[in-house]
Structure formats: C-alpha cells, structure tokens
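Good morning C.,

I know you're traveling, so I'll keep this short. The sequence:
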Amino acid sequence: MKSTDSTHALLQRSLWSVLVLTVVIGLGVTFWWGEDVDALIAQMDPTYFAWAIVLLSAGLPTVAMRWRSLLDPEEKKRTKPLFMTGLLMLGHLLNVGIPGPVGEVVTSWIVHKRYNVDFGNSLSALLVSRILGLISAFLIAVVVFTISPIKVAEEYVDKLWVVSVLLLALGGLASSVVLFPEYPKNLLVSVRKHNWLQGRFLQRGFDLVDQLLGSFIDTAKRGWLAYGEAFFWCVLGHSMVASGIFCTVLALGYDVAWTGIFFTYSSSIIFSLVMFMFPGSTLGFDVLFSGMLHVTGGIPLPVAVLVASVIRLHQSLIAVLGGVMLVFTSQTLLDEALAFAKKYVTDSSTTPEE
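The tokens, ready to paste straight into the viewer:
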C-alpha cells in the first residue's frame, strides 16, 4: 500500500472493487444466458431462497467464534463475538480491493487495541483459524467422497482425481504447518542463510514468516481443547454455508445430491488458500466453484454460474455492511489500524507499539 493512502481512499477502492465485481457478474449472467436465466429466476422458490440467505449469513459468526477460540483464555474473555464478526466483514471488504493479508492485519490490530489482546496472538489465532478452516474443509471433502462417491460424467473422472490429489497435498501441507510449526520454523532458519536469498525484500518476507510461525507455536500451546473448539466452529460454519448453497440450488428448481454440493464447496475453499493473495482472486474462485458445481452436481453450467453469483453478491453485501459499520462505530481505530497495516506489510519488523 502507498503511504499516501487514507482510510477513505482504501475503503473507497474496496467499495469500487465490489461494485465493479457486482456489475460484471450481473452483466455476464444477463447477456451470456439471457432468457434462460430469466426463466430460472422466475421459477425460484422464495422459501428455499430465504433459507439459503439465512444459512449463508449464519456461517459468518462461526468464523469469529473459531478465531476467538484460539486466543489466550484471559484475552478470549475480553472479546465480543459480534464485534469480531463485523471486523471479519470489514476484512473481506479490504481483501477484495487489496489482495493479500491486509484485511487480516487490520482486523487483528483492531482486536489488539480494543480488547487489549497481544497483536501476535490476535493475528496468529486468526491465521491459524483460517488454516483450520481449510483442514476441516479438506476432511469434509474426503468424508463426503468416501461415504458417497460423486457421480460424474466419464470425461470428468480423471480431472476429479487430479483435484482430489491436489486437495490432499494442500490439506496435508496446511495441517503440518498448523500442528507442527516448529519444523517449518527450523527449516526457514536454514533456508534463509543461503547467499542468493539475502536480498532485502526476501529477508523481510522471511522475517514475517518467521514471526508468524513463532506465533503459531504460541497458539499451539493453547492445547487440544482450544483446537477442538475451533474445529467445531469450522465444521459448523462450513455445514451452514454448504447447506445455504444447497438451498440456493433447490430454490432454482434443481434436484441435486447434497454430497456434490458439500464436495464442491469444500474443494473450492481449500484452493482459496492459493488464490486469495492475487488480484482478481474472487473471480477466479467463482470460475472454479461454478465449474466444479457443474461437474459434481450434475446441473447446467448457467445454473452453476447463477448459484456462484448469488453467493458472491451475498458476500459483497455483507462486506459492505461490515465496512460501513466500522466506519461509523470505530473510525479513529480504523484509521490507526490501516496506518499500522501500511507499516506492517512494508516492514516486517514493525510491532504494535511502534
């Protein structure tokens, strides 16, 4: 981020990104499929659609709860889940406009200042909770694939196996980092000593990763009970969102196996680990989700795209609401958080007290 960026400029950029994304989705769906989509919307079941919105919305507080579960017990008592939910909405808005960890840094810093929570604990708990979300999604995908193999067309079988292998690799990597952070930290110490890796930018990146792995080690000391509580909220949240997607498909008049929905959602969540750092990642996620839903759910591609569009528009609205709420309730704190985030992403040695 540039040092001249103001809070309003950053939020405005994020809001414009959401608006552009919404317009692109709307125009793409309307002009690409035209009357087919009009017919689908006309036959939409309002009851199922209402349940879809409720379930999709109910999944967000569970993300705040899994984050809160991994804080120090005394720090956890001081935090408020509702406010943390609003922060996550703001973080999503910032990450739409500014791909990367800016939203995570800002939200963690605000929790640090508002509730007197150590910044390292706050950021580490949030990042570990996200990786636990990926691990739980991986396990859901494996369980669903095991108990009820997905029925797909012959030409898609090999591709589905490739996806499954990639899921296994990503899930295993994420699990090892979270559960055994000492090993990657020791490996990092050895790797960064090489002469050809002594550039200032690379070393700053290594410093940041080293700090995060150190925080992961501290978070791991919370014990299996804290991890179990976080994992519970992960599974509950994924189940709510996947059920919301299932209701969206039913609302459009299509009968689809719930296993296909759960596998598609869980798979797409795991691949988001790779995508969220890059511009346009939300659109890439939607393309991936639509394609997999078409294959595993056995529904027409236009319907899969429409389902993905409903989910994206819902998330965009939630993100905007979170941003507006924080601007009106915590403007000064938000200004300070964004100023700190600018320093944090450009100087990995920054601490909250500087």
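Safe travels,
E.
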